[in-house]
């Protein structure tokens, strides 16, 4: 699973109440701070990684937690642009399963939220 998000500047009338917001003025990059992305595990699948910890890639460094029903990524800093968070799953049962939408939010600014699209996963028995 690798949900992908595009972080774009808000329009003038869409104000974000986050105290961590930097000015998105022309020609300057801006960032969001302290974000969480919760990815519910599809039925019949488990993460390959066995321990929670730190993960880095595509200019994103995050901590992640493996929980019973979901995997949660915590980002302390995210700059403008397209980024991807990913982890590997191991199929444990054949069938067709729904991968529910990933929920992303700013931990200290509840008005800043996002959802990915739902996906269907088919696992075939070999």
Structure characterization notes:
With 126 residues, the chain is mainly β. The chain has one domain (31-123). The chain has strands at residues 4-7, 31-40, 45-47, 53-57, 60-66, 70-79, 81-84, 89-91, 95-99, 103-106, 109-115, 119-123. A hairpin with a 2-residue loop joins strand 4 (53-57) and strand 5. The two termini are 21 Å apart. The model is unreliable at 9-25 (pLDDT under 50).
- The unreliable regions are 9-25
The mean pLDDT is 78
The Cα radius of gyration reads 16 Å
The secondary structure category is: mainly beta
Strand order of the largest sheet: 4-5-6-2-10-11
Number of domains: 1
Coarse morphology: elongated
Helix content range: under 10%
Largest sheet: 6 strands, antiparallel
Number of strands: 12
Question: N-to-C terminal Cα separation, in Å?
Answer: 21 Å
How many helical stretches? 0
What amount of the residues lies in strands?
over 45%
Topology as H/E string? EEEEEEEEEEEE
